[in-house]
Amino acid sequence: MNKIEYFDAGVITPEEIFIAADLVPIRLLGDPTISIDKANEHIPPTHCFWARNLLEQAINGLKDVKGIIATHGCDCTNRQFDTNSCNLYDLKRKLGDDYDIPCLILDADMNDPRKLNETQTINKIESFIEILEERKKN
User: Fold this and answer.
1) Are 88 and 105 in contact, with CB atoms under 8 Å apart?
2) Is the whole-model pTM more than 0.70?
3) What is the number of alpha carbons within 13 Å of residue 62 lying toward its C-beta?
């Protein structure tokens, strides 16, 4: 089973595309039983607990994961993304460099669907699937 995990404050992640690519999408949820000390070293404590908790889970190791997809959608994460978008890209780089986990970032303004560039989003997803398929061959 090829698991692709995602964290998504809204409903933007297109699970059906990943299922069609023979991937099992699993939504990452927060875990209130773990400490977030390591995540606090990378994400400011003013950011939402949920985002820091997911990073802590990633730092501690996600088992049998072929990739991670990061989206945003609620007002809190949208504004955090607008003002601190480098943090999400830092997370992507850390997961790739330190843990060899490929990541896809899908950004969209969930408050105004007219701003979603569907073609660009589909291209990003298709490119990510190509990366995962190439990794599956190796």
Assistant:
1) yes
2) no
3) 29
Instruction: Give me the tens of pLDDT residue by residue for the chain, a chain 138 residues long.
Output: 688 877 766 666 778 878 888 888 888 787 889 898 888 887 777 777 877 787 788 778 766 777 777 665 555 555 555 545 556 677 777 778 887 888 887 776 656 777 778 888 889 889 988 988 888 787
| CATH label of the domain that carries residue 96 | 3.40.50.11890
CA 4 to chain centroid, in Å, comes to 10
CA-CA distance, 88 to 80, in Å (whole number)?
10
Longest Cα separation, the chain: 41
Structural domains counted in the chain: 1
Q: Which domain holds residue 40?
A: 3-137
